Structure formats: structure tokens, C-alpha cells
Amino acid sequence: MTRLVLVGPPGAGKGTQAGTLSEKLGVPHISTGDLFRAHIGDGTALGRSVKGILDAGKLVPDEVTNEMVRERLAEADAQDGFLLDGFPRNIAQAEVLDKILAESGHKLDAVVEFQIDEDVVVDRLLSRGRTDDTEEVIRHRQHVYRSETEPLLNHYRDLLLTVDAVGDVDEVTSRVLRSLDEKPHGQA
Ligand code: ADP
């Protein structure tokens, strides 16, 4: 069983890694950013209500995000494990996640931190070209990460595996897999 959370600043390469890791570990990749963008692309009511927030690099209100994640985690493919990417993004969301898991008698196995310098990620994001990838919005997302999301590293200190996210995509994947293998906590 593999219940993992991926944490790292915007541009750290979590999404790319999550795709590969999801295949290797046989659990679904659940990205809140992707779920929101799918809603926006499909023109749902939820999508229309969050589009401006994503474009500004702000966080979607917790109630909306938490409910979307609760529903996604209730789906059949997520019962034996998942890779959460982009959630939780603040302590309140982490507490909700703990509650959702506890309701089905589960807990997280590990939290993987992608460690990388802010200057490196800003350069990466500027070359990506998403609508929320202007320099100003990118800087704002980095700020939100530092103030809201970084405190999670302490919240999850007992589950934390820190991986150097600078390097080849394959190299970073190997580092994550190696650190999961060596993981001293739990029984994953
Ligand atoms: P990045 O990792 O580049 O910040 P994501 O795809 O993870 O991009 O998220 C894009 C946007 O979706 C965020 O800037 C935010 O507006 C919204 N979002 C994603 N996850 C959450 C969350 N857990 N809580 C609130 N907003 C979120």
C-alpha cells in the first residue's frame, strides 16, 4: 500500500515525477492542479468559479479543494494507494486529509519533498507557457508556497523524505524510489 504526498515549490517537477512514479508504484496520480484545469477546460461551474484564482496564482478556497479531493479519494482506483500532488497545500488541508484517511482506517506512508532553489524553478516555469506562468504570477505562487505550504514540512516531519530535485528527470525518479525503499518509517 502506498499513500504518498508530494510537496515542493511550483516548478520543482512534481507533476513529471508523479506521472512516472504512478506507473512504477501502480497507484493513481491525483493532482489538484490538473483536476482544476480539467474543470476549467470542461467549463463546469466549479471550473468557472476557480479560473480567475488559478490565473492569479492564488489558492482556491479550502472548502472547494477539500471537497474535490474527498470525492476523488473515494473513487475505486484510490482505495489501495495514491500519489497526491498539489494537496495538501496548507496545514488546514493537511488536517482534512488526515481526517479523510482516518475515516477509512488509513494513514499516509510518506511525504516526499522535492528540494530545489527558487531561481532554478522560476526559469523552468517561464519556459513552460501555461496561462498562470507569467513572471509576476510565478513569483506570487513561490511566495504562497513559502508562507502556506512550507510549514507542512514540519507538520509531516516524521513522514518526510527529502529528495534533491535538481538533475535529470530519470535521476530524480531514481532518488525518489531509492528513498522510498530506504524509508525507516511505517511499513508502506
Ligand atoms: P504549480 O505546482 O505549478 O503551482 P499546480 O498545477 O499544482 O501548479 O496548481 C495550479 C493552481 O491550482 C495553484 O496555483 C492554485 O491556484 C490551484 N491549486 C492547486 N492545488 C491547490 C490546493 N491544494 N489548494 C488550493 N489551490 C490549489
UniProtKB/TrEMBL annotation:
InterPro entries assigned: Adenyl_kin_sub, Adenylat/UMP-CMP_kin, Adenylat_kinase_CS, P-loop_NTPase
Pathway it works in: Purine metabolism; AMP biosynthesis via salvage pathway; AMP from ADP: step 1/1
Pfam families registered for this protein in UniProt: ADK (PF00406)
Keyword annotations: ATP-binding, Cytoplasm, Kinase, Nucleotide biosynthesis, Nucleotide-binding, Transferase
Enzyme category, top tier: transferase
GO molecular function, one term: ATP binding
Catalytic reactions of this protein: AMP + ATP = 2 ADP
Residue numbers binding AMP: T32, R37, K58, L59, V60, G86, F87, P88, R89, Q93, R130, R141
Region entry NMP, spans: 31-60
Subunit structure and binding partners: Monomer.
HAMAP family tied to this protein: Adenylate_kinase_Adk (MF_00235)
Similarity comment: Belongs to the adenylate kinase family.
Swiss-Prot/TrEMBL domain comment: Consists of three domains, a large central CORE domain and two small peripheral domains, NMPbind and LID, which undergo movements during catalysis. The LID domain closes over the site of phosphoryl transfer upon ATP binding. Assembling and dissambling the active center during each catalytic cycle provides an effective means to prevent ATP hydrolysis.
Physiological role: Catalyzes the reversible transfer of the terminal phosphate group between ATP and AMP. Plays an important role in cellular energy homeostasis and in adenine nucleotide metabolism.
Entry protein name: Adenylate kinase
Organism: Actinocrispum wychmicini
